[in-house]
User: Fold this.
Amino acid sequence: MLTVKYLEKSYQNFSLDDISFSLKKGMITSFIGNNGAGKTTTLKCILGLVPYESGKISIDGITLVQNERDYKDKIGVVFDSGCFYEELTLEAMKSIIAGAYTNWDERTYSEYLNKFGLSRTQKIQTLSKGMKMKYGLALALSHHAELLILDEPSSGLDPKTRQFFCDELMKQKQKGKTIFFSTHITSDIDRIGDHIILINNGKILRDCSKEDFLAELGKRHPTVEDVMMEVISREVQ
Amino acid sequence: MKMLCLLKKEVLLAGNYFWFSLACVIGILIFFSNQETLHFGSIYTLFVSVSFACYFLFSSIFSMEDKYKGNLYLMSIPYRKRNIIEAKYLLAILVYIFAMLCYQVMFLIKIPGITLVKYKLTFSCAAIVFFIISIILSIFFALYFCFSYGKIKVALIAVMVFIPTWGLLGLDRLTDLNIVYYTPSISPVFSLILIGLSIIMMQVSIGISLHFLNRRNF
Assistant:
């Protein structure tokens, strides 16, 4: 599905160092790491939001440079802060977004709005954080994207909404979608993650199945957070 | 279709300022044509109306784009960056065409005792205004994509509002240039060349804006 090879991106005080991984089709891959580890920068490189020095990113063999439209048509994206023009209504924002996609499905969009309890005439700025996340999810799921990329989607959400979010991602996985989401809330991964990529200080430390990741600590019933902290502390030493 | 969606986005972001900008065009044309002691030329009148309208329109769009991270979303969906940039230039051209049409229609409307616009707008005058507006917008759009609205807003209001009014009127009083009252006439061929140059300038500016946008870290 998505392949990232030898990605390098430098800022003044931080750099992504030789990031390589690939996502398996139909799986939920969690991209974990502490704040400032490089998760969002990597996602932004994948989405073409920041230029990078070297590396190759492709989806089913198509790179952003080769065919920006086909590449982005395959992706459904949900940002942490929504990233909407908040003074617009849901309908107005949708009319901007929908025009970009080749396969926009208005019926699916309406179904998700009803399911999530969203009103078309409501202004985005009146939505709670959880409702904004649901709206973002509705937009991302309404053009039959094969790959869902979510940047810290569950941060700042109450437990009930996070549960809803996890259930929704599981449903999408069952439909065959590939899901890639960054988070530092590791309890979500305990619930739904299949594969884990751990990043720290711009370097990939682990890229393995959740079972292999949890087995690393060698104790009974470890959590993703336990292993993550252990691996990072070993790396620091 | 995508360009229409992007144009719609600009209009939606401008909100009420879009209608205000259009009203501004009509208001300024009438106001500048109805000064008892000052007889502003058609070039100056049309230029000020387009300049003010573009200022109100684009300053509201730019500030909305800066305030929210909507551009981040827009860049990550299948809109080409070039199209996102081109939509702004196209909107500016549409505002200019609207102002020009308003001027022509208002000139043709004859109501006894009321002057809507005083002097006829010739093809050469329209071409000169298009050329001047193209220079200003080509510079400012490129600067906007390089920096952000916060960094260019003082320059924007100075160049699009204060210089065309106080600046040019002051210059006119201090010198004998007769800038604001003069209506030059140039040949149709030279007018077409000016329009062609304006389009080339905007194309170059779009390229520069794209270069800046590609280098920008969102």
